[in-house]
Amino acid sequence: MDETPGRGRPRSETARRAVLDAALRLCQDGGYQALTMKGIAESAGVGRQTVYRWWPAKQDVLLDALRDLGLRKAEHLDPDSGDTLRDVRTLLDATFVLTRKLTGKALIGLMADAQHDPDLSQRLQSTVIGPRRQALRALLARGVQRGELSGEDGALDLAVDFAFGAMWYRLISHHAPVDARLAEQVTSALAKLLSADEAAGARTTTTPDASTGAATSANEQVSVQAKEQAPVSAATPAAPTAG
After folding, report:
1. Which contacts (CB < 8 Å, 24+ apart) does range 128-136 have?
2. Which tens digit of pLDDT belongs to each residue from 14-47?
């Protein structure tokens, strides 16, 4: 194990990985507040000065560990099976498994500290939270391009907030698990939120009916006018709405 100090000298990848894995494991087992640099060093089997030479504080170790883990799990966090909703489910499943088993307490602890540390907040967003949000949003946008989903930019951003907001709320409140069932429910909800039928319904405008004063949709008015103008013999069944 190479623990030789010095600027520009490469650090041991074995030692680095041991430290990162130890930090996440200890944090998940004992909690963020109880995590110390000394404990990380002892669990990783390296000297405390080695850890301090590579990372100034435990927040830095955890950020590096979360980023490294994301890179190692990249294939599960950027799926492309040809089915957008299946890929959404795959991404959420992978994210929720990692959160439940390994990263949840580190994320909560870092987020809590970030409320009073703008620099930590920016680093957390840029290295962990932002990339995960971008991955899901890119997946949803790809579904829109394929015609599987329908949504404007604002709707996609809201969908991402909803998906990960559910995860964060459960992590913080502990009222329900972050598990495969949640991934299934969130995927189903996103399908409805971004479905072509829902989007079409949201764009329908309403206008007052002059004879009854009741509000009817512009689409309904066009339909009524067409029926009044067409002869009975020419009436044909309406074409089914595309799903």
Report:
1. 128/63, 128/66, 128/67, 128/70, 131/70, 132/70, 132/77, 132/95, 132/164, 133/160, 133/164, 135/77, 135/78, 135/91, 136/88, 136/91, 136/92, 136/160, 136/163, 136/164
2. 999 999 999 999 999 999 999 999 999 999 999 9
